[in-house]
């Protein structure tokens, strides 16, 4: 059984296409408790297997497998293949993606329920899976039928609200993007602009008190500074601490820029992870 404590306090988040065994091994050495495989890893989960093969104890979680792109039964088969080789070290995160990128995204909550039904039938139990969740109904579903929720591109205000919706028992593991160094703002701006083009994130941000002025035109400078912790390791640590204080059990840190491992090392020192 996977527990909330197994995730550790802080994890490292990286897109599946930018991950390899060397990155995973270094993240483990730095003291990160979980490595999050971002983007939409394909159903064979070969990248997950590679990361687990290269490490000894770090938990690996998908953040997330897109339910419209990866058949549930095939994903379950991959899960069991990996579970046989690395028992207890994989958590399957799933989600319904974005309306703008997924034309077939119709009745996503019902589709998530059906996907979870298949995982139940295939023996991938609630304690080995979680949901990408922003809205109240998806957060409630995450608490009801999985280990918990992995919100992305959110503020601590959302974390506090999610905790109230989900109750105290469910895992709450938000993602936090950070950008360190002299070019932090330059790295953060295109990232923020991309996600402000997706309606589900904008709706969630507005529910967290973000104004139109904050998000219009790709995001005000003040908003970019709020949503992407920068530019010093202490700022990144403070960003993670704010989510934890708001009710998160775990924070998944995504480092922008040309040297993500260097940034993660600085943050690990600041947070005393090693």
Automatic annotation (TrEMBL):
Q: Which InterPro entries match?
A: Bact_Lucif_Oxidored (IPR050766), Lucif-like_OxRdatse_MSMEG_4141 (IPR019922), Luciferase-like_dom (IPR011251), Luciferase-like_sf (IPR036661)
Any idea where the Luciferase-like domain is? 22-118
Report the superkingdom from the record: Bacteria
Pfam families named among the record's database cross-references: Bac_luciferase
Under NCBIfam families, the record lists: F420_MSMEG_4141
What protein am I looking at?
A: LLM class F420-dependent oxidoreductase
């Amino acid at each position: 059984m996977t527990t909330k404590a197994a995730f550790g306090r802080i994890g490292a988040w990286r897109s599946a296409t930018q991950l390899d065994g060397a990155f995973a091994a270094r993240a483990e050495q730095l003291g990160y408790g979980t490595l999050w495989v971002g983007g939409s890893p394909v159903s064979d989960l070969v990248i997950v297997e590679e990361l687990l093969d290269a490490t000894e104890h770090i938990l690996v979680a998908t953040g997330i497998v897109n339910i419209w792109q990866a058949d549930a039964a095939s994903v379950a088969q991959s899960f069991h293949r990996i579970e046989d080789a690395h028992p207890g070290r994989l958590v399957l995160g799933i989600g319904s993606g974005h309306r703008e990128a997924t034309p077939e995204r119709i009745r996503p909550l019902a589709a998530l329920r059906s996907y979870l039904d298949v995982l139940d039938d295939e023996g991938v139990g609630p304690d080995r899976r979680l949901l990408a969740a922003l809205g109240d109904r998806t957060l409630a579903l995450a608490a009801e039928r999985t280990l918990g929720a992995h919100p992305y591109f959110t503020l601590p205000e959302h974390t506090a609200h999610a905790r109230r919706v989900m109750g105290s028992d469910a895992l709450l593991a938000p993602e936090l993007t950070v950008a360190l160094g002299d070019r932090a703002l330059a790295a953060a701006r295109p990232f923020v602009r991309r996600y402000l083009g997706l309606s589900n994130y904008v709706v969630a941000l507005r529910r967290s008190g973000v104004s139109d002025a904050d998000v219009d035109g790709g995001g005000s400078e003040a908003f970019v500074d709020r949503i992407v912790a920068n530019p010093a390791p202490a700022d990144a640590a403070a960003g993670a601490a704010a989510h934890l204080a708001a009710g998160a059990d775990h924070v998944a840190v995504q480092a922008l820029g040309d040297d993500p491992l260097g940034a993660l090392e600085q943050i690990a020192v600041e947070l005393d992870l090693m």
